[in-house]
Specification:
Layout (H helix, E strand, L loop, with lengths): L1 H14 L3 E17 L4 E16 L2 E12 L9 E11 H5 L8 E13 L4 E12 L6 E11 L20 E14 L2 E12 L2 E2 L5 E2 L2 E4 L2 E5 H4 L6 E11 L8 E11 L1
Antiparallel strand pairs: 1-2, 1-15, 2-3, 3-4, 4-5, 5-6, 6-7, 7-8, 8-9, 9-12, 9-13, 10-11, 12-14, 13-14, 14-15
Length: 261
């Protein structure tokens, strides 16, 4: 645990050095989100700030969600959730291309996930493969450990899965950006899909493996009004099998507005 935390801290520290580019976006989403503990879906606003940054030896991506639904039930009530993934590129460190077939590079990745109301903290050290496929702006596959650092029930949060006689897990994530044109209109399919393995929490309960997919379908409205690549509208579709490790599944479409700096 301490070794993993030290490795994540080192990558995070290096990722703040010598940024080569930076792209910041603000997302506003509106749609129904299900509370998996009550099985009730409520209209929910999600405001997201996210940033992708390139630097000398890798890149960095983070987002912070602010969530608020239309009822006070202890779920998505003015809550926040954030993730950060700095990387160290093996190719950049070696100053040469490390291509293996369609894979153009490999990287060390160090993720951190933090949730508000549930007092959730997770560390996700692992490896990334970056693919070179026609049409894709990027396509990454990440295989990471899923290490629990929650305060647990004693701290007023979600039950730990790293307490004595319990276990951690793993996560496999695929992220992509695929821009394309239809006539003179610019569109894109951007998003990620992940599988999170099952584990046992400190109460002895099984937390089921889950799958989450969040593709976004966007149209470049900014191009029509003279500000290309700055204002996008569209839909984010969210499919969540065994949401948050429960028996509940979610399938929902949300209206999406993206402002890019």
């Amino acid at each position: 645990m301490k070794t993993a935390c030290a490795g994540i801290f080192l990558v995070a520290l290096l990722a703040t050095y010598a940024a080569a580019f930076s792209q910041t976006e603000f997302h506003l989403q509106y749609g129904k989100h299900k509370n998996p503990f009550s099985a009730v879906a409520r209209q929910t606003f999600v405001f997201t700030v996210q940033q992708a940054t390139g630097w000398k030896w890798g890149d960095s991506f983070f987002f912070i969600d602010y969530l608020n639904d239309d009822t006070r039930d202890g779920f998505n009530d003015r809550d926040f959730y954030g993730e950060w993934y700095p990387t160290l590129s093996f190719g950049k460190l070696a100053n040469k291309e490390l291509r293996v077939g369609p894979i153009r590079d490999f990287a060390l990745i160090a993720g951190v996930n933090v949730g508000g109301d549930a007092n959730v903290v997770k560390y996700l050290p692992g490896l990334r493969a970056s693919w070179d496929l026609p049409g894709f702006l990027f396509l990454n596959t990440d295989l990471m450990a899923y290490i629990d650092a929650n305060t647990g029930v004693a701290g007023g949060g979600a039950p730990q899965t790293d307490a004595p006689q319990t276990d951690n897990s793993f996560i496999l994530d695929v992220s992509w950006a695929l821009p394309f044109n239809v006539g003179n209109q610019s569109l894109a399919i951007v998003g990620h899909a992940e599988y999170l393995g099952s584990r046992t929490d400190e109460l002895g309960e099984n937390v089921k493996g889950s799958m989450l997919a969040q593709p976004q379908f966007t149209w470049d409205l900014g191009k029509v009004i003279g500000a290309p690549h700055q204002l996008m509208v569209g839909i984010e579709y969210q499919y969540w099998l065994n949401k948050l490790g429960t028996d509940e599944d979610e399938s929902t479409a949300q209206l999406l507005l993206v402002w890019r700096l």
